[in-house]
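Worked example 3 (structure in, sequence out).
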């Protein structure tokens, strides 16, 4: 993956959180939206959603790690996240990366 990929994944999450879109009765934070979108993407692309009981009886979602995704999978998640945000009427902000491929400022 390239360095801009994480920013492109988090941008729709931030846009959803900032506009206070409600999901399951509450508005989510950026990390919450990242988990919701990554889980939805997994199911939409043929994976299965899994929830297990936690140590204290809470529900714990088990999902694919975004950090372990390759370029194709990450690009698919970015497209899925942007499409979901637009379907909710969210105006996506433009995301630009100010470094080169290796993170150096240009």
């Amino acid at each position: 993956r390239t360095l801009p990929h994480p920013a492109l994944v988090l941008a729709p999450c931030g846009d959803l959180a900032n506009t206070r879109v409600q999901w399951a009765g509450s508005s989510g934070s950026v990390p919450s939206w990242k988990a919701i979108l990554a889980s939805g993407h997994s199911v939409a692309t043929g994976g299965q959603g899994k929830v297990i009981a936690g140590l204290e009886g809470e529900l714990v979602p088990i999902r694919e790690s975004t950090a372990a995704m390759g370029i194709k999978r990450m690009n698919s998640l970015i497209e899925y996240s942007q499409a979901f945000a637009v379907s909710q009427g969210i105006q996506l902000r433009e995301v630009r990366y100010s470094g080169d491929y290796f993170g150096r400022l240009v």
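Notes: The mean pLDDT is 86. The longest helix spans residues 71-87.
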